[in-house]
Amino acid sequence: MTHPHTARDTPATEPAGTAPAPGSPAEQRDRLTAREGTPTPATGPEGTPADLHHHLTTHLDGAARAWLDQALDEAAAHPGVRGPISVWELRLAEAGRRCGAEHADAARVLIMHSARAGTDALSRVYFQGTAAERRSVLHALPHLVEGPEALPLVEDALRTNDTRIIAAAVGPYAARHLAPHHWRHAVLKCLFTGVPVAEVADLDRRAHADEELARMLRDYAAERTAAGRPVPEDLHRVLTLTDPTATPPARTVRHGARGTDGKES
To answer: Cβ(128)–Cβ(85) under 8 Å?
Structure first.
């Protein structure tokens, strides 16, 4: 069956998250799949679902393509949330083993898209899933949720120090829906944890002429300097973007997730 989905992947190995409780849905899923490798930098899936599907069908081998088509058919036939765990949720855990770590995020996004997962289903996967599944939910948000109702997932992700999850959280969905106050703190979170600000979707437009963001950046730079710590180069880049005299940029939204686990320095 041909599916209206798509793929542009990224090397995606799965950082370890909190171990699921025995008997939990996350543990049921984890029993179906092997570890997907050690944490390494990776970029998140970009493009429309149709682009993602085309990319995967071009790059996966025959067995992986057959598994993906079956998983998408199952998700389309049994959408939403059903019982303790849905069939398509189990397939999310298999994605790394079946499609390879490089393509796991894109495969998961397609499965959630085929399942027409709404905010309730995405929230369940996010809060009960592995770190890899949480990251994939964040990548799927702009394709599945029109309004701001999934912002609690983004806000939760921004409270972590897992830089791959933070990078996924500052994608197009956050660019569309995060209020200015929370968006500014998301930018600072990237600076704290070492997530490249290039990962922040629509950064140029949202930072333009933002005097409050400029003040926060100067304060942070002053704190770093007073403590004898270097000021991140990315801070100067964002500060330049806040200049109200610069030509306002056109609206663009792009996103890719990469990084490793990080803590505020």
So the answer is: no
